[in-house]
Amino acid sequence: MSSARDRTNRGGLRIENLSVRYPRRETPALNGVDEWIEPGEFVVLAGPSGCGKSTLCRTLAGFVPDVIPAEIGGDAWLDGQTLIGHDPAKIAPVLGYVQQDPDAQICTLNVWQEVAFGPENLCLPAEEVAARVHAALSEVGILDLQERSTTTLSGGEMQRLAIAAVLAMGSAWVFLDEPTANLDPDGAEMIFRVLGQLRRREGRTVAVVEHRLAPLVPYAPRVIVLDHGRVVDRRRIRSHYDLAEMRLRAGWPQPPRDVRTCRAADHPGNPSLVELADVGFGYGDRKVFRHLSLTIGRGQVLAVIGPNGCGKTTLLRLIAGLEAPESGRITRTAGVHLGFVAQHPHHQIFEQTLRREYAIDGVRDPSRLKQLLSEARLSGLADASPLSLSMGEQRRLTVSTALSRTPELLLLDEPFIGQDRANVIWVLSQIREATERGAGVILVSHDVELVASISDSILYLGDPVQIGSPDVVFEALAEQGKHAYTPGYWEDHH
Amino acid sequence: MIGGSSGIGCSTHESGPVGNMLLLAGCVAAVLVAPGISIKLAVLLSVMVVARLTGSILFLARKLRFVVLFSLVLFISQALSVHVGRVILFGRVTDQGLVLGAEMALRFLVILSSSMLFVAITDPDELTHALICAGIPYRFGFVLSLAVRFVPFFSQELSRVREAQRLRGISFSFRRPSELRRAIYYTFVPVLVSGLVRVDAVTMSMKGRAFGIHRHRTWSRPLRWTRIDTLFVLLSAALLAASILARRFTWM
User: Fold this and answer.
1) Mean per-residue pLDDT for A274-297?
2) What CA dihedral angle connects A38, A42, A45 and A46, to 10 degrees?
3) Contacts of A106 in chain B (CB under 8 A)
4) Is B219 within a domain?
5) FRET label pair with B28: which of A119, A327, B10, B19, CA 20 to 30 Å apart?
6) Do the bridges between strand A301-305 and strand A440-444 make them parallel or antiparallel, or are there none, so unpaired?
7) Do A122 and B210 touch (CB under 8 A)?
8) ipTM metric
9) Do residues B183 and B101 both lie within one domain?
């Protein structure tokens, strides 16, 4: 008894036999997690999609079961105080949590007010609130946006705002769920640097849920690997060698170095699927791009990269015909069938079961349905509700339904966000199969490594715009000092 | 450009929520109290002038299209249904019918247009602050701010879902009830799911930033009172005074 009390009274975060089971789920999201995180540590929570990383964060922050109902077993103590079953509002001053979706967590209409919201709730003096807002906005590099309406921010700007809003709370413990998922490489590097400083300068404890581990190596984090709701490995990563060893031990699949199997030249009969000639577009006074010209041919993968807000999604929307160009011309070859996979899968899911969802796209033959479900690793879920699927499963469903119609032009908007390596490899394999049968693919992604592995040509939509073969574009970006947009940057630079 | 904004009309923050609220109250009270059509017309004109000066006239014009149409329907139906007075048009439309129709249409137009102007030029967070200063508990006051934030959200989600339907080749024929049901299901279920996800996320976000742990909270930006607010108060007082006087002396 005394030893248990000693454990709970030790400084830091003590998690003991923590289990979480959501209603109507057969398997628990967390299954007997035991862990101890010391004050001032930099911890990374890693593991495949659905392994329980987010559930662990939400449970420790008090949101499970307060906001998200679940059965909980075990306990967790922060500096001797139990966390389980506590009001999250009372946990917040000591443990701050940045959620996955930055847009969803914004609750005011102005950047300054959003960051001030937390310190104001703590009843701090107005001068102290203003100082904290200024410091937090400066740290994440959006001080110049302080008077902007939150409804006008790009995804990356919202992500920085969500982080600033939690930093301003001044919590000694900060948990972040995929804080760089929507950020361009420069933005991601800055956020990691900020997190490193939080630990080094301010002595705060930082725990990050992250799929990309290479950029975190310089901060020598302790990686806690979860799988099926259990901790399966924990180790300090001080070098890329450590990281490679850990991946090997965990049996994580590696994306192939180069999955390009065919080129536009392999489909000489009809090389052009869509052609943009001198296209310009803007929102009001803000010009997104001017004089953009490019051609997508059959069997070709064009990857679109660039900073947040540069117009990557807008380009896809223009090609899909959802927006009209202000100037120039977009010509899609007559009769070309289009497949579009948007960033948020729930916008593209309409039916009550997966079987009916595929039927929208004309898949009614049971054997074909079985094959598609199996390929998408959704076997046995034909009569399940799509809304009961995890985000990763929903993403695979939307890619699979889009491909079931064998589109000749496939538009993919950030298909790798929040995906584990197995899902990433599945998406890559689908792209490869589509190009092998002659489809053209336009892929928007911040993941330069994956882009480099699959694309035939790259469009960098930053300033200045670059377009060409991957080698040419990466070389030009390196010459311009945009190293974060070149493959191997995280391994080589640090 | 003068006036404040919720990000819908303009982006400056010249007028405060109290001035805007008093202007709204003054216009609505004036149009309800005033007899005849002259003062109601003056109130409508005042709303349009303020909308022009605050840069919200385009927003108002867009939003008022249906309202103007409905006001016209009100006017015509009232003119045709009132048979008291002297017949002056088409053998059945009377002078009193026209006046009553115009009064009803103007009342409707002023209430709707001044409310929309208020939404366009008022920062909901500042309005929340003002309500809390007026004694409403801040936990309830924030509901208003959140409600305003959810209005553009639902409209954006609806357009995203419609785009997704279009790209997937989903179309509806509204002649059959089953198709109508399908259209509703395919449209509102994704929007509703997004809404519920958003509600959970915002709840977590607010609680995760200690919302509600203290009885009071700091407001680091004090309520503003500018010359524009004073002008709004004077304008609404003048309109209301004219209405009361007109009613008192049955002056048209």
Assistant:
1) 86
2) -130
3) 149, 202, 205
4) no
5) B10
6) parallel
7) yes
8) 0.80
9) no
Q: For the residues of A244-287, what is the DSSP string, one character each?
A: HHHHHHHTPPPPPS------GGG-TTS--SEEEEEEEEEETTEE
In a shared domain, residues B28 and B104: yes
Task: Give A292's strand partners.
Answer: A279
Q: What residues of chain A lie within 8 A of the CB of B216, using their CB? A: 123
- Shortest alpha-carbon distance between residue B231 and chain A (Å): 25
Q: Which residue of B has its CA nearest to A349?
A: B190
Q: What is the pLDDT of residue B251?
A: 53
Q: Kind of pairing, strands A457-460 and A466-468?
A: antiparallel
Taking the CA of residue B153 and the nearest CA in chain A, the distance in Å comes to 9
Residue B88 identity (one-letter amino acid): I
Q: Where in the sequence is the domain holding B65, given as residue range(s)?
A: 17-122+224-248
How close does chain B come to A349, measured CA to CA in Å? Answer: 7
Instruction: Average the pLDDT over A428-432 and give the result.
Output: 91
pLDDT single digits (tens) A70-101: 999 999 999 888 999 889 999 999 999 999 88
Domain-located, residue B1 = no
On chain B, the residues whose CB falls within 8 A of the CB of A112 are 221
Picking from B166, B212, B216, the nearest residue to A89 by CB comes out as B212
Mean pLDDT is lowest, of A119-123, A408-412, B120-124, for B120-124
Domain count within chain B: 2
Cβ pair A105:B204 closer than 8 A: yes
> Tens digit of pLDDT for each residue in B219-251?
887 777 888 889 999 999 999 999 999 888 865
Residue B115 and residue B160 in one domain: no
Matching residue, tokens 């792209």: A431
Read out DSSP for A6-67? HHHHSSSEEEEEEEEE-TT-SS-SEEEEEEEE-TT-EEEEE-STTSSHHHHHHHHTTHHHHT
Paired sense of beta strands A327-332 and A274-283, if any = antiparallel
Rg (CA), chain A: 23
Provide the pLDDT confidence category of residue B252 given band limits of 50, 70 and 90.
very low
Q: Per the domain annotation, does B7 fall within a domain? A: no
Q: Given a cut of 90, is residue B105 above it in pLDDT?
A: yes
**Which residue's structure tokens are 């760089």?**
A180
Contact B205 A104 (CB under 8 A): yes
CA atoms within 13 A on the CB side of A178: 19
Mean pLDDT of B83-107: 87
In a domain, B217, yes or no: no
Please state the φ and ψ torsions of residue A274, each to the nearest 5 degrees.
-145, 140
The partner residue sitting opposite B152, judged by closest CB among A110, A119, A151, is A151
> What is the pLDDT confidence band of residue B1, given thresholds at 50, 70 and 90?
very low
Q: Is the pLDDT of residue B151 over 80?
A: no
List pLDDT tens digits, range B129-145.
Answer: 888 888 888 888 888 77
